[in-house]
Design brief:
It is built from 14 helices and twelve strands. With 377 residues, it is of the alpha/beta class. It has two domains: 149 residues, 3-Layer(aba) Sandwich (Rossmann fold); 197 residues, 3-Layer(aba) Sandwich (Rossmann fold), CATH 3.40.50. Strands 3-2-1-4-5-7-6 form a seven-stranded mixed sheet, with helices on one face. The radius of gyration is 22 Å and the shape is elongated. The two termini are 21 Å apart. The relative contact order is 0.13. It binds 2'-deoxy-thymidine-beta-L-rhamnose. 2'-deoxy-thymidine-beta-L-rhamnose binds next to helix 1, helix 9 and helix 10.
């Protein structure tokens, strides 16, 4: 039941795929979440191809529009709310049409920029700030900054209302069988990463036990990185997995729903970027995060802020630092890289459980953005 006060509005949500899947993944989740709450969404995306596997069934009340240059808007009136994800810069023609349309209807209009998720203090400080547009086609409009986040004074995190119920119904053995994964009760670990400098170390750790592990590797960069790493290991240390304690499955691209299933099925999840981090928190299993690297190393602070927010124990912090190459004297040079500390899943589990409990008390992002819209329209 929607009690936000915005009923049946039309949202134009814009998304530019820079690289990887986080921008489209978040844009899609937000679109579906709004549509499930009685809103109409036009999801404009410059490269919608990933939706074919991420969301093969589409969603009611979400119309995917290929965002071309120039933008194709023949016969379309702009919607009630204009939302750009991650500062993706909507075409001036569209903004002009939106400004004219809102004026013609005697409305204020609402233009939102949805920002990247971070646990850093600026998310609280900047959440909801207005930026009046003084020049250009949008002059007279006001753009608002909406920051997702982990605290009560941010815009919250994306979480579907039926998530807990779906999770409670999930049957891990059944799902693994459906996916053709021959699970024999080994520890399950999922791998979604870029090219972590400590990948070879992780493989050594998993291959030396004490228990057997099955590594479920996601398609794309994670698979490519692992494949290369294994080729090197086989060449340099052919007996690295001689006890065969480590088995590996390379997965196809999964739908967002099935990616959740993967996280729920595993005893430990390696995740990357922002969206899978949030899903790992909701999965309530120990996880390790590889942060999206930035050239100026701004991601180091962002990683620190997350670990601080989680109140992560020292061993978990140390693991994250090595996994992200933060400790290395010269990043990228394996010889300078400290060894990966041992996995300590029990203590990590306690942290994830207590953080998850806290975070579930907050209103999720769709509720918050709808309330925000009702206050500003
Ligand atoms: O793909 P990412 O590394 O995305 C990144 C980050 O968001 C980064 O901040 C951003 O700047 C950059 O993209 C451009 O990781 P992320 O954020 O976890 O997004 C992955 C999405 O892909 C998420 O919605 C889950 C989804 N996914 C699937 O649907 N199926 C799969 O098989 C996998 C592995 C992921």
């Amino acid at each position: 039941m929607d009690n936000s006060g915005v009923t049946g509005k039309l949202w134009d949500i814009f998304c530019r795929v820079i690289d990887n899947y986080g921008d489209i993944g978040v844009g899609w989740r937000l679109s579906v979440g709004l549509a499930a709450r009685g809103q109409q969404v036009r999801f404009w995306v410059d490269d919608p191809s990933a939706l074919a596997w991420m969301a093969p069934e589409g969603a009611p009340n979400v119309e995917v529009r290929h965002w071309t240059q120039p933008i194709q808007t023949e016969g379309l009136a702009p919607g009630d709310i204009l939302l750009e994800t991650f500062g993706c810069e909507i075409d001036p023609e569209f903004i002009a049409a939106y400004a004219d349309w809102t004026r013609a209807r005697g409305k204020k209009g609402l233009w939102i920029n949805l920002e990247y998720l971070s646990a850093e203090g600026y998310a609280e400080r900047n959440h909801g700030l207005p930026s009046p547009v003084m020049t250009g086609p949008g002059a007279g409009l006001c753009k608002y900054f909406f920051y997702p986040g982990f605290t009560a004074t941010t815009g919250g995190l994306l979480r579907e209302p039926d998530l807990a119920e779906r999770q409670a119904r999930f049957d891990r053995a059944d799902w693994l069988q459906q996916k053709g994964i021959a699970w024999q009760g080994e520890r399950l670990v999922s791998l979604f990463c870029y090219e972590p400098p400590a990948l070879a170390d992780l493989l050594d750790q998993l291959a030396t036990g004490p228990q057997a592990t099955r590594l479920l590797v996601t398609a794309g960069r994670a698979s490519a990185a692992l494949y290369t790493c294994i080729l090197n290991k086989n060449r340099l240390h052919p007996s690295w997995n001689k006890r065969e304690l480590l088995s590996i499955n390379y997965l196809p691209q999964l739908s967002q729903h099935d990616y959740d299933h993967l996280l729920w099925a595993c005893d430990l999840n390696f995740v990357r970027g922002e969206d899978s981090l949030v899903r790992a928190l909701w999965a309530n299993q120990p996880f390790v995060w590889q942060i999206y690297p930035q050239h100026d190393d701004a991601h180091h602070q962002k990683l620190e802020a997350l670990l601080e927010m989680l109140d992560a124990p020292p061993a978990w912090r140390a693991f994250h630092k090595v996994w992200n190459g933060v400790n290395s004297l010269t990043e990228g040079k394996a010889s300078q890289q400290p060894r990966l500390p041992n996995l300590a899943l029990d203590s990590w589990q306690q942290v994830v459980t207590s953080a998850g409990q806290q975070l579930r008390l907050q209103d999720e992002l769709v509720t918050q953005i709808m309330l925000f819209a009702s206050r500003h329209l």
